[in-house]
Amino acid sequence: DWPNDIAALQAMVSEGALLPGNMFGGKSVAPVGAANSEVMIISDLPDQDETSAGILGSGKSGALLAAMLAAIGIELKASYWTTLGTTIPATGELPESALPQLSEFVRHQIGLVRPKSVILLGATAASAMLGEPFAEARQSLRHFNHDVRNMAVMTTFHPRTLIMRPAYKAQAWKDLQMFAKRDIA
């Protein structure tokens, strides 16, 4: 049974409850943000520095993401950010076989948060949530239907990728500009 409110879900993830994403071992990092956030951010895994602190967004990737979103008028702290895996597997990557259950749990969170738009960070999030390769998903805004609601979805580079490969920042900026022009009726 999955929690039916965000505060309970966040607490259960933090406590290491048997929820999808918490099964890989190590310290759990709960989603952050309020249940009524207009923008929801979905990534693959917390980063090592976030796992050490126990807070999603507390590391270098979170600082870069906050700056990226601020550039288009979105405050990271006003958004809801979740990860497919709330613990980091020993391999550092999510097993392909786990993606269907992990994406189902994230869809459950979408139903609780009811955002107006979604940002997918990285190839794993794009594959799990849209069933599309990263390069294809980045070409244009997609739409995600959930509970008869249609949300604009943007796929872009995970901030950890931009930290390792700064040359991709120009492409990420184009993605952000496209997202800034989305229809959020």
Model description:
The chain is of the alpha/beta class and 185 residues long. Helix content is 38%, strand content 15%. The chain is built from 8 helices and 5 strands. The chain has a 5-stranded mixed beta sheet, sandwiched between helices. A hairpin with a 2-residue loop joins β4 (142-146) and β5 (149-156). The longest helix has 15 residues, at 99-113. The chain is globular. The model has no long low-confidence stretch (mean pLDDT 93).
SSE order: HEHHEHEHHEEHH
Strand order of the largest sheet: 2-1-3-5-4
Q: What's the alpha carbon Rg, rounded to whole Å?
A: 15 Å
Helix content: 25-40%
Distance between the termini: 33 Å
- The share of residues in extended strands comes to 5-15%
Model regions low in confidence, pLDDT < 50 over at least 5 residues: none
Q: Assembly type of the shown chains?
A: single chain
Shape annotation: globular
The profile of the biggest β sheet is: 5 strands, mixed
Overall number of strands: 5
Which class of secondary structure composition applies to the elements?
A: alpha/beta
Total of helices: 8
Residue-averaged pLDDT: 93
Give a topology summary.
Elements: H1 6-14, E1 39-43, H2 48-53, H3 60-70, E2 80-83, H4 99-113, E3 117-121, H5 123-130, H6 134-137, E4 142-146, E5 149-156, H7 159-164, H8 169-180
Parallel strand pairs: 1-2, 1-3, 3-5
Antiparallel strand pairs: 4-5
Quick description:
The chain is an alpha/beta fold and 185 residues long.
Write a concise keyword list for the protein shown above:
single chain; 185 residues; alpha/beta; five-stranded mixed sheet; 8 helices; 5 strands; 38% helix; globular
